[in-house]
Every structure is written in C-alpha cells, then in structure tokens.
Design goal:
By secondary structure, this protein is of the alpha+beta class. It is built from four helices and seven strands; from the N terminus they run βααβββαβαββ. A hairpin with a 3-residue loop joins strand 6 and strand 7.
Length: 145
C-alpha cells in the first residue's frame, strides 16, 4: 500500500542501512547514510510502499515549483519485493502529483553502471539529459503515462 510521508526518521534510516549494498554503487560509498536519512526525512517529499505494515520501498523527491520540476533523490525497492511493479507504482504516483501541481518534468541522477535502473527509467519515459563522469542526469517530461 502506498503512503505519503508516513515513515519516521528511524524507519528511513533503517531502510537505507538495509538497502545500502543494493545501490550501485553502495550508498555508503557516496554519502553519509545517517545525514542522508535525516535530509530525506526533514526536506524531501516521500512516497513509501508498505506490505503488511513493513516499509519496503521508497521514492524521495524534491519539488521546485518556481522552475516547475521535481528531482528524485532516491527510488528503491527491497529486493525481496523486486519485479512486482512497485517502483513503477511509486513513479506513477509521483507523475500524478506532478500533474496535480503543474510540474513540467522530473529529473534524476543515476550511476552509468546501474543497468537495471537505466532500463527501468527508459521504460518509464526518461531520456538522457546530461552525462557526468560516473552518472547520467535523466529527464521525464510530464504529459501522460
């Protein structure tokens, strides 16, 4: 079941610590997970997925209504629940939020070696906007699914 901004700071931290090694590269190699969890809790909007009251997936994003865009800071699904369409459901909910708030596009940054994520984002209509050294900035223009 999808919830908006339900998780506590501790639940977000526990989730990110559990998921650390499933990120490409590991989340702890690019950021302090404790600081990142706090930042997500304090500043990001969150779309969370629960299965039997267990927090199993997270999409955290920032809205910039002045420039009419959203930025996804993280999207992940517990691997025990992978390939069940949960990430797609989270992203579709974000798209509906963007439509409702007149947001024109969604950006995100992904590691160039994360082929599963790149395939997913391509399937969801994201296109390459900018190449950095080890990452790509992808953009999805908001229209309809």
């Amino acid at each position: 079941m999808i919830e908006i901004n339900k998780a506590t700071k501790e639940e977000i931290l526990d989730y990110l610590l559990y998921m650390d090694g499933y990120f490409t590269p590991a989340l702890s190699t690019i950021t302090d997970i404790y600081v990142y969890a706090n930042k997500i809790y304090e500043k990001a909007k969150r779309i969370e997925f629960y299965n039997n009251n267990k927090f199993i997936a997270l999409l955290a994003f920032y809205l910039n209504p002045i420039y009419s865009f959203a930025f996804i800071t993280t999207i992940s699904v517990n691997p025990l629940y992978a390939r069940m369409g949960i990430a797609q459901e989270l992203l579709e909910r974000l798209i509906l939020i963007c439509i409702d708030r007149d947001i024109c596009f969604i950006d995100l940054e992904v590691n160039i070696n994360n082929s599963k994520a790149l395939n997913f984002y391509e399937k969801m209509g994201f296109c390459n906007r900018e190449k950095k050294t080890e990452t790509l900035i992808l953009r999805r223009v908001i229209d309809t699914l």
